[in-house]
Amino acid sequence: MRAPLVPESLLRRYDSVRRRSAQLAEPLSDEDCLPQSMPDASPVKWHLAHTTWFFETFILERHEAGFRPFHPAFRVLFNSYYNGIGAKHPRAQRGLVTRPGMAEVRAYRQDVDARMACLMEQAGADAGLAALVTLGLQHEQQHQELILTDVKHLLAQNPLYPAYENPKTVVPASGGKRRRWTAFAGGLADIGHAGEGFCFDNELPRHRQFVAPFELADQLVTNGEYLAFIEAGGYRDPALWLSEGWDMVCAQSLRHPLYWHLDTATGRWREFTLHGMQPLDPALPATHLSLYEADACARWAGARLPTEAEWELAAAGIAPECGWLHPAAARGEGLQQMYGHCWQWTSSSYAPYPGFAPQAGALGEYNGKFMINQYVLRGSSCATPEGHARASYRNFFPAGARWQFSGTRLAR
Predict the structure, then answer these.
(1) Cβ density class 366-375: b for 16+ within 10 Å, e for less
(2) pTM for the structure as a whole
(3) What gap in Å lies between CA 204 and CA 194, rounded to an integer?
């Protein structure tokens, strides 16, 4: 991590990020915040408590004079995967934790926030403490995105298909734009984080990598293009699929993206969104695709997925944009939708950069131990908080993951 904020700015930043997490829960009932729809997702209540646990465990416990935990059991209950901290409640059973209730979790957040404010005011310009606080805020922003993706998966299990947030107006994209290709000369490219802003350890060290000449599609694969892939028999042709992907298609009887629904009465497709069930808009990006689906569609289109180095080289100089709870249609010229719509699968497996060294102690588990059996996604999604995206950011998920806002950008 780099460049902690000055104390006054850090206090404001802390308050802003923490308030945003609470705001994300406001459209939900307490009942909405308890269930866990699958082992990979977590209840909203758990997200709110775990992000608080991070500050209590990694900062207050180490730096607060006379530290006493809010509740001793929370150290185990809301630990995620930090073996260096100690025991953990089983991930797949988080939805069974009916107590503490939401009122106590909110009280937990308020207590830790008050103590954190006192600690930061007393510590002054303590660079080490500021770096830990900054990491905690970046960690909380990751969970803000997970709150939205996990809630969407939860609400999609309800046959009423309730909306997380009702849109003020639903305006279909008009027409959309044709895909064009943007050429890059390649060559030696500097990859990884540069500058003084924050980055996670897996974005370092910056290093030089050769990239062959390539082209990138100027927009993400659209619903209309993906529907053409389906109608051409894409889910029935094993020649298009990686072996494990074809096994997944057969085992799960996959025929379309995760939140698509075919209305058998009308023959029309609909898509479940955070705004509820909507008609499938052919101009919007196809999202919630696994790596296997993204790769198969790219093969069918006579293209491929970009490498993460190609994506980062292409994204240099493009300002990140924030999302709107659902991907929007491409507009304008040049590379579009690099940020703020869908995370974009790459063909790069998640591995350490040359010279990578994890941080010492339990925080070294944050990224390093996951550098196997995962693939890298780049950019950001419509659920990514403002200020949390950058060209060097390395997201990562297993190849079969579908519940994230993940899409496809073609390369050749």
Answers:
(1) bbeeebeebb
(2) 0.95
(3) 9
